[in-house]
TrEMBL record:
Family: Belongs to the ATP-dependent AMP-binding enzyme family.
Gene Ontology biological process terms from the UniProt entry: fatty acid metabolic process
A Pfam family assignment: AMP-binding_C
Protein name: 2-furoate---CoA ligase
Keywords: Ligase
Length: 513
């Protein structure tokens, strides 16, 4: 199987004059982009990076993020893309845990890079800003360099994504070139994307959806249109201006687009294919989006960082809530909850835990330095997803929630434990519990139930979260004061009771803006 570096070289050879990348006023053909990527590959080597090393990137979706991704594939370096909104503590963890030998950043993450432990001595590349001690990205890519020669094999590590688990610290998900390429090829096929397609590069390149969009476009000699940070006005403008053919977004972004004042007057005629993933979509929102875009294809993609595709529903509107059937490279089962046995298969209609084969071409092989996570999630060639669901009479999969309590809000994973830990540090909080409640825009909204001490207000708690080390997207958007939190006879917190509405409010709920 081709590695990704050779895949890029093949695409450049196939159509060197095709438009590859758009980032603001920058427009690069495949030939032009390959020249810059080759210079960047040489620049990484000049910094002392070698095949098998790892490099952390904390970048918004821009030319640098896309270019570094491909330079790493050519050089045989494993890229470790992380959230540009990461706090200094989080960034320091990513660097230390991944054994990174360099870091690339832009203005969005500069502050965390300056303050994170373990980053000071690393070689750095800065994009779009001048930072003392850091090499300029533009200076590197403007140098002349020979065409980069692919150094990796299909068995080498391509990327390590970080995904949150039930504990506060994220888990590293190393993925080989062959798995990444297989996921991209399946993405092309399952979304029926044509050669020369164009997509909006808005899903972050630290997220499996963003990476897949980038790889798919390159395999198709398509155009990846960068949107560094989501803005409805900018997204709508780019859809019309660049004639976007395929959109692949989390439900929250679709919600915001169709509610924006510019939506009705935007030319959307180029958009033929819609896909969503990362969170559930309510039936009402599904129908509104379909009526607004009238796409030829509307795909619900259910997957994960570990195994890109679990299942695909290519007609999401026809069967709301259905995640469809197993993808091209996948085999799924629903097994008895808590059994930990891949052979404890349940009949159709019965809810259990969804598991996926690790024999599929898109699958990872285990978490980075997390044997306890492997023991929990991997068993006899199967990946236990941590999701609950069932197959209906037609054999279509319905995902009904999480085995644990992870909150997926706007496509981002939020650990309740981490948020609770932050809230518990406020002297006005006696007890707290955090859950995700259904929301049309976010899929789930982070909601904190507080048994307070004294007369602390929602505004004070929101300020506490804003000024803490908690990343902004993790802070509660809704705060409910309760007289008591539901618990089992042995004192275990029952989050499911809060989700079901079984609690006693102290008074009317308050909302943090």
């Amino acid at each position: 199987m081709l590695d990704l570096g050779r895949s890029l070289v093949a695409s450049v050879s196939r159509a060197p004059d095709a438009l590859a990348l758009v980032d603001g006023d920058i427009r690069l053909t495949y030939g032009e982009w390959y020249g810059q990527i080759s210079a960047l590959t040489q620049g990484l080597a000049d910094m002392g990076l070698r095949q098998g090393d790892r490099i952390v990137t904390a970048l918004q979706n821009n030319r640098a993020a896309a270019s570094v991704h491909w330079a790493c594939q050519l050089a045989g370096i494993a890229i470790v893309p992380v959230n540009w909104r990461a706090t200094p503590d989080e960034l320091g963890f990513y660097v230390a845990n991944s054994d990174a030998r360099s870091i690339i950043f832009d203005a969005s993450s500069e502050k965390s890079v300056r303050e994170a432990e373990g980053v000071t001595g690393l070689p750095k590349i800065a994009y779009g800003i001048a930072v003392e001690g850091a090499t300029s990205f533009d200076d590197i890519v403007m140098q002349s360099a020979p065409d980069a020669t692919p150094q990796a094999s299909a068995e080498d590590c391509s990327v390590m994504l970080y995904t949150s688990g039930t504990t506060a610290r994220p888990k590293g998900v190393p993925r080989r070139h062959r798995a990444e390429r297989a996921g991209a090829v399946a993405h092309v096929a399952q979304n029926m994307m044509p050669m020369g397609d164009t997509t909006l590069g808005v899903m972050p390149l630290y997220h499996t959806m963003g990476v897949r969009s980038l790889l798919a476009m390159t395999l198709l000699n398509g155009t990846f249109v960068c949107l560094p940070r989501f803005s409805c006005a900018d997204a709508l403008n780019l859809i019309a201006k660049e004639r976007i053919g395929s959109l692949y977004l989390v439900p929250t972004l679709y919600h915001d687009l169709i509610d924006h004042p510019d939506f009705e007057r935007t030319d959307l005629s180029s958009v033929k294919r819609l896909g969503f993933a990362g969170a559930s979509m309510t039936e009402g929102l599904l129908k509104r989006i379909n009526a607004a875009f009238r796409p030829d294809l509307f795909v619900n993609h259910y997957g994960s960082s570990e195994v890109y595709t679990f299942s695909i529903e290519q007609d999401a509107v026809a069967k709301p809530g259905s995640a469809g059937k197993a993808g091209l490279n996948q085999h799924l089962r629903v097994v008895a909850m808590g059994a930990g046995d891949p052979d404890a298969v349940l009949p159709r209609g019965e809810e259990g835990e969804i598991i996926a084969t690790l024999s599929g071409d898109e699958a990872f092989e285990g978490y980075w330095k997390r044997p306890e996570a492997n023991e929990k999630s991997l068993c006899r060639g199967w990946f236990f997803t941590g999701d609950c669901g069932h197959f209906d009479a037609d054999g279509d999969l319905f995902v009904t929630g999480r085995v644990d309590d992870m909150i997926i809000t706007g496509g981002e994973n939020v650990s309740p434990v981490e948020v609770e830990s932050c809230l518990s540090m406020h002297p006005g909080v006696a007890e707290c519990a955090v859950v995700g409640l259904p929301d049309d825009r976010w899929g789930k909204i982070v909601t904190a139930f507080i048994k307070r001490r004294g007369d602390v207000t929602a505004e004070e708690l929101d300020l506490h979260c804003r000024t803490s080390a908690l990343a902004n997207f993790k802070r509660p958007r809704r705060i409910v004061f309760v007289s008591d939190l539901p618990k089992s006879p042995v004192g275990k917190l029952l989050r499911r009771e809060l989700v079901a509405g079984n609690f006693t409010p102290e008074h009317e709920q308050a909302t943090a803006k």
